[in-house]
Amino acid sequence: MTNVQTETAVIRTATARRRPRIRHALLALIGFASLCLVWQIGGTITNSPASVPFTEAVRNAIDIVLGPNLIDDVLPSVFRVIVGFVGAAVFGLVAGLIIGSMPRLLPWVTPLIEFGRAVPPPLLLPIVLLIFGIGEQLVITVIVIAAFWPVLISTIDGIRRVDPTMLAAAESIHLSRAARAFLVRLPAALPSIMSGLRVALGFSLIMMVVAEMLGAANGIGYLVMYSQQTFNVPETFGAVLLLAVLGLGFDATFVAIERRALAWHPTFHDHLD
Prior knowledge:
Blueprint: H1 3-45, H2 54-66, H3 69-101, H4 106-118, H5 125-132, H6 136-160, H7 164-172, H8 177-188, H9 190-215, H10 220-229, H11 233-261, H12 266-272
Helix pairs in contact: 2-11, 3-6, 3-9, 3-10, 5-6, 6-9, 9-10, 9-11, 10-11
């Protein structure tokens, strides 16, 4: 095969992979536009004081971002999500790597893991509130607890599914246990770990809102609750819309990082196709 034919084949393959993504993006855009249109029409023709048109919600969301609420509420919420998510990711990865690499330990800790993941994180709010009181530590602690379990479970599952042939090859060249864990097990389990991290990111955003509504004096969750209690309906819808945009932004950023981190993995390319 000549160089021209090779380049042509590569271009055709890249184009074939790009077409489904473009189609999915167009369908998502059409669906979002349809939803916004229904919201706009419903909010315009409804006389209820509990509904506002989509354009008014957008205007209030922009006012929140451009006003003092950016410093008082938006940035603190973003900070809490990032810190809580990173903390949960570190604890979950380390614990999952240790447990997954030691099969004899798994039967001992499985009941604890099942018990911990079965407890709804919002139920822990009163306990955490008694310990830390209202403020930053409360919100971050609840986020860490909620996001820890998806990372832990996905890491353990990914470590346990590593091909034994790869481990045997690592042992044949006399790699230490720590080297096998970080150079063989962790990269091989990365697709499963990234799936758990993405779920944990969603949990982080959800628990940030819940914790701020009940145990914080600022933040977007607090703003939603305060505006609802003061019957500022447009600001309530604006804050909710801003939360949705933040969620989309966090997820899009994570997907971009995931694509780069797993660009070498053939299973990930098959999933994208």
